[in-house]
Design a protein that fits this description.
It contains twelve helices and no strands. By secondary structure, it is an all-alpha fold. The chain has one domain: Methane Monooxygenase Hydroxylase, Chain G, domain 1, CATH 1.20.58.480. The model has no long low-confidence stretch (mean pLDDT about 90).
Amino acid sequence: MTAYDPSSDGAQMSFAKDMSYIDYLALDPILGAQHRQSNAHDEMLFIIQHQTSELWMRLALHELAIAREELAAGQFAPTFKKLARVARIFEQLNSAWDVLRTMTPSEYTAFRDELGKSSGFQSHQYRLIEFIFGNRNAAMMKVHEHRPELYTMLGQEMRRKSMYHVALDQLANGLGITLDPGIYKMDQPHKADQAVIDAWTTVYENPETYWSLYELAEKLVDIEDYFRRWRFNHVTTVERIIGFKRGTGGTSGVKYLRKMLEVELFPELWHLRGQL
């Protein structure tokens, strides 16, 4: 049997003068960015899992930045498309923990010391995602002071309305009400407000009348649902691999991560369910 020759079907086989797949995706620097600090076999898994997670977060930030602008302009349909994509991105991030959990405590211990003080706690992209959603804490910026450009970027985000602030603007506009300006806290986490709970409850009690707001609320709940699962999977993965040791970045490890499980990004959208 003669071996198949793709060129016989018209496939281009020479890329000496044309852009190739490797060129377009800049695969040389990407695939060359895994620099193990030890000879431990499983360090490659650890590096790639975190690098790919950062790439997915890069895409989430790309989508969220535009979605916030579109929502502020009242463009609900394209906003919904992007928010749905962000939810699926967090589904991918969740799946990554399943791969990392194949690493045993013994395998991680073989290279853990080589991490030094580096930790996922220091991810500026994760911090930026939280800030965009509205979970803001100025104290969390200090870890980025050694990178002025990142520190400045986070500070700029802190001074902008969060995604949830913009959603609340649309809620107020759609219902023809005025919300207390005091709920728009720019430099601290959003706290549940009864007037906001009542406003969202009106939407849920009359979905046909306020369909765009109703769908917006559910898109935000979808994102937080996946975000919570991501945090939970993070906790269980860390506990499975290192138990209750302190994190490499100095946090209390599992204890710190469990505290993060209590964070509510869009609290009123969860609290209203009890009064429907």
